[in-house]
Design a protein that fits this description.
This protein has 368 residues and is an alpha+beta fold. It contains eight helices and 18 strands. The chain has a twelve-stranded antiparallel sheet, with helices on both faces. The chain has a three-stranded antiparallel sheet with strand order 1-2-18. Strands 9-11-10 form a three-stranded antiparallel sheet. The protein is elongated and about 75 Å long.
């Protein structure tokens, strides 16, 4: 699933946040009937653990993460996918041909040839790193693009670099020097390449995403990155979608705690909810194990593509560690909605699904 779909998935969360600037109005949570409970018990009859960053949750066995390209580690963007070795080999061959041919595209000038500046083979047939141009840009600004195959998982890692070492950029280099750039700043390739190789060395695949690593480090879709002695910036998202709902999570350990919490963003929601014909199902503070959290569950009505009879809409959101967020207590958000989906689940069932997944939140073993 591509990033634009990720934005769609979290559109309900964003709408909810725009509305949720606060409102001290409470409505009672719906009661779960015996029939409702049987339906949800059936959904959760078999669950599986899922590791997201340094957290673990339990989801129904039928839930599968569909977002594999929203992984940001320091200055690197990553994506992951299970493929067989022949397919990985073919992927590299096709990509190399595509990049070599790119110089002939009208947006690329021959003075920036070759399009691939360097191909770096990784040991043990682990993959390759392309130092390549960026289409439509001068070749002082380039991309390191790594294709890695480990434990039956193919990873793509990209990062942007600046390289003014070519003599043709001598005049432009003077401008950078006058702006206060150092020699290190004007050629970021060596440092960024070393960082990329370090990241690759700590990377392993997880073909079975129900196996939770016990080593110190972070889980990413289809993979795991072991900790080293450095502090890294990690932002990771997962999304589970079916015909009834979309459930998403995001963790970001660069966000620091503050008083700007979900429940403190309260003034003004009364009018916003009335205007949008939505209401609060429940909201409040939770303690999930040792993890403090705040949630807000909203219901309303929607029409499919703005047409037809209205049907229920649900937008649930939760923030964990929001007031105390740090590297050791990473910020985490949950969101669940049924935007453009005529869910078979009623309000009580949707709340129960939410409560069961949210209630399973915990840190992974050896999280730190």
């Amino acid at each position: 699933m591509k990033a634009n779909n990720y934005l769609k998935i979290f559109s309900g969360i964003i709408v909810c946040l725009l509305a949720i600037s606060g409102w001290r109005f409470y409505t009672s949570s719906p009661l779960l009937t015996q029939k409702d409970k049987m339906i949800i018990d059936s959904l959760f009859e078999e669950t599986k653990p899922q590791c997201i960053g340094r957290y673990t949750i339990d989801v129904p066995i039928s839930f599968n993460n569909q977002l594999n390209d929203f992984i940001f580690i320091d200055e690197f963007k990553m994506e992951s996918k299970f493929i067989y070795p022949p397919a990985f080999k073919q992927r590299i061959e096709l990509r190399e041909k595509e990049l070599n041919d790119a110089i002939n595209q009208p947006q690329n000038e021959m003075q920036n040839a070759p399009f691939i500046k360097e191909s770096i083979q990784l040991p043990d047939n682990k993959g390759i790193i392309f130092d390549r141009n960026i289409s439509g840009e001068d070749d002082l600004s380039r991309m390191l693009e790594a294709h890695i195959y480990v434990d039956n998982i193919a990873f793509i890692i990209t990062t942007k670099i600046l390289d003014l070492s070519d003599p043709k950029y001598s005049e432009r280099k003077k401008i950078y020097i006058n702006a206060g750039f150092s020699e290190f700043d004007m050629n970021t390739k060596p440092a960024r390449l070393a960082q990329m190789k370090s990241l690759i060395s700590r990377l392993s695949g997880r073909i079975n995403d129900t196996i939770i690593p016990t080593e110190k480090g972070i889980c990413i879709p289809n993979g795991f990155i072991a900790d080293d002695s450095n502090v890294h910036k990690n932002r990771i998202s997962y999304t589970y979608e079916n015909d009834d709902l979309i459930f998403g999570l995001e963790t970001d350990d660069t966000i620091l705690g503050s008083d700007d919490t979900l429940l403190n963003r309260s003034p003004g929601i009364y009018g916003a909810l009335l205007k949008s014909n939505q209401r609060t199902i429940k909201k409040g503070e939770l303690l999930l194990g040792k993890i403090p959290a705040q949630e807000w569950l909203i219901s309303g009505a929607q029409k499919l593509h703005g047409q037809g009879d209205p049907f229920p809409s649900y937008n649930f959101i939760l923030f964990a560690n929001e007031s105390i967020a740090s590297y050791q207590q990473p910020w985490l958000s949950f969101g669940m909605d049924n935007n453009s989906k005529k869910s078979r689940y009623n309000q009580a069932q949707m709340v129960e699904i939410w409560d069961r997944i949210v209630g399973s939140l915990r840190y992974k073993p050896n999280a730190f």
